[in-house]
């Protein structure tokens, strides 16, 4: 049976470190990092995410600025608000909750956020820095996964790593971070032929494809480390990952559960990115 990789445990450990770091900054500089989160509209899932981020900031002492804008907000109005936050020295991180209403260009919005305050690491400048290795921020979910691997002393060097999914938010940056750690990386996606033949070669398998229980034990090499990024709502209301946990844990050496695996690390990494942005200004 696989050993569980607990995102709850590691997130709690990491947040204690961040809390101590923020308190030290308060004592030394008389100020704390500030994170502004913009929500346009009232999408229920997005509203939950924003509340969770607000609570996480309060937990570690980061100043949280919630900006709620109506669904009918124009693109120009949103871009103006971002410009104001870019110019506000008390705001170190800016996050616009996605998805946005259809009449607003996500690309324009992401590009308008100052690269120095882009704590999601979606701005093209920050994406480029990830490719070259000179980054200041890392996308929250892939960076959180690296923290999990480090905590459990799972060495990437020389390992065959397979990433299933090629999104800009998870798949692509995850592949780059594993490559930076000296893994030999293959990226698969919805059009990959003979997918399970490739996944069965992985020493470290990261699955971020958004399909519940998509891969089971037959797709996993015995002894592999399995990182399941998926969070899928089933018809009965329960949550499932992209990996069939019940079968996969029989053959994996380590595995992340859903929920309680990768998820808790995403917001925790956002907090660390906000602290790092503050440190760039002092």
Task: Write structural notes for this entry.
This protein is an alpha/beta fold. It has 2 domains: 30-119, 3-Layer(aba) Sandwich (Rossmann fold); 140-264, Rossmann fold. It has helices at 7-29, 44-60, 75-86, 106-112, 124-132, 140-151, 171-180, 195-199, 245-248, 263-279; strands at 3-4, 34-40, 63-69, 93-96, 160-164, 184-188, 204-207, 225-228, 232-233, 239-240, 254-255.
What are the key terms here?
six-stranded parallel beta sheet; 10 helices; 2 domains; globular; Rossmann fold; single chain; 282 residues; 16% strand; alpha/beta; 11 strands
User: What is the CATH architecture annotation of the largest domain?
Assistant: 3-Layer(aba) Sandwich
The whole-number mean of residue pLDDT values reads: 96
CATH topology descriptor of the largest domain: Rossmann fold
Biggest β-sheet: count, sense, barrel?
6 strands, parallel
Low-confidence stretches: none
Order of helices and strands: EHEHEHEHHHEHEHEEEEHEH
Number of helices: 10
Distance between the termini: 48 Å
- What is the number of independent domains? 2
Indicate the radius of gyration in whole angstroms: 19 Å
Shape: globular
**Overall strand count:** 11
Q: Which CATH first-tier class of the largest domain would you pick?
A: Alpha Beta
* Biggest β-sheet: strands ordered side by side in the sheet: 1-11-8-7-5-6
Query: So, the CATH homologous superfamily of the largest domain?
Result: NAD(P)-binding Rossmann-like Domain
The percentage of residues in β strands lies in 15-25%
| Helix proportion | 40-55%
Structural class, by secondary structure, is alpha/beta
């Amino acid at each position: 049976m696989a050993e569980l990789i607990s995102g709850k445990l590691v997130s709690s450990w990491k947040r204690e470190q961040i809390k101590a770091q923020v308190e030290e900054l308060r004592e030394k500089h008389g100020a704390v990092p500030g994170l502004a989160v913009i929500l346009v509209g009232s999408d229920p899932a997005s509203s939950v995410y924003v509340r969770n981020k607000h609570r996480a900031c309060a937990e570690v002492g980061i100043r949280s600025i919630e900006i709620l804008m109506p669904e009918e907000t124009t693109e120009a109005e949103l871009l103006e608000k971002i410009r104001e936050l870019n110019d506000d020295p008390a705001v170190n991180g800016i996050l616009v909750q996605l998805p946005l209403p259809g009449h607003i260009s996500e690309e324009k919005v992401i590009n308008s956020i100052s690269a120095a305050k882009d704590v999601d690491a979606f701005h093209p400048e920050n994406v480029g820095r990830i490719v070259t290795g000179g980054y200041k921020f890392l996308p929250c979910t892939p960076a959180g996964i690296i923290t999990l691997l480090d905590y459990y002393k799972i060495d990437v060097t020389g390992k065959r790593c397979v990433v299933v999914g090629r999104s800009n938010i998870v798949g692509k940056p995850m592949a780059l971070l594993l490559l930076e750690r000296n893994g030999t990386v293959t990226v698969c996606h919805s059009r990959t032929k003979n997918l399970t033949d490739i996944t069965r070669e992985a020493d470290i398998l990261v699955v971020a494809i958004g399909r519940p229980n998509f891969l089971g034990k037959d797709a996993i090499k015995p002894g592999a480390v399995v990182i399941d990024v998926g969070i899928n709502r089933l018809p009965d209301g329960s949550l499932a990952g992209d990996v069939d946990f019940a079968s996969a844990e029989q053959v994996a050496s380590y595995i992340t559960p859903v929920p309680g695996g990768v998820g808790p690390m995403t917001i925790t990494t956002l907090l660390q990115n906000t602290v790092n942005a503050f440190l760039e200004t002092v």
